[in-house]
């Protein structure tokens, strides 16, 4: 949630459905609400996400955050920047997301962990740079990537991620995916 813009923090406080009055309070309440929603979705399954579409991505975000934010499931209509990273301008979100979804649809099977790691690093980086939502992009994208991996016969063990290494890899992935690829190589396993 650490965006360099007061308007973003103010917007999140004003849009939250949890009654939070400060950003810190919102972060704490949001974590709890998210884990509850994610737990329910784990039981329900993610079949609705495929075939991957703009609508299914919006539905995933809505299901994850509908108890937290009034904008759950809606793409952002403002420019966003985090630290030195400027994300996709809002008017290009649909176009870029459709291009990426079509790329995934055209993918052949991934023969090994190395190939899967390279492909997932690419899709994760691109989805992150599109950054379609005002909040909750990282968590939504992690689920999309995990489910993409499953569809290609791999399990992405996010419980094995070292948080700091992962965040460092994500920070530089827009110009160098090597660290992210290594992280995927170490956390991906062929499904049984």
From TrEMBL:
Please list the GO terms describing molecular function: AMPylase activity; ATP binding
One Pfam entry name? Fic
Q: Which InterPro entries match?
A: Fido, Fido-like_dom_sf
Source species:
Macrococcus carouselicus
> Which protein is depicted?
protein adenylyltransferase
**Recorded superkingdom:** Bacteria
Enzyme category, top tier: transferase
SUPFAM superfamilies registered for this protein in UniProt:
Fic-like (SSF140931)
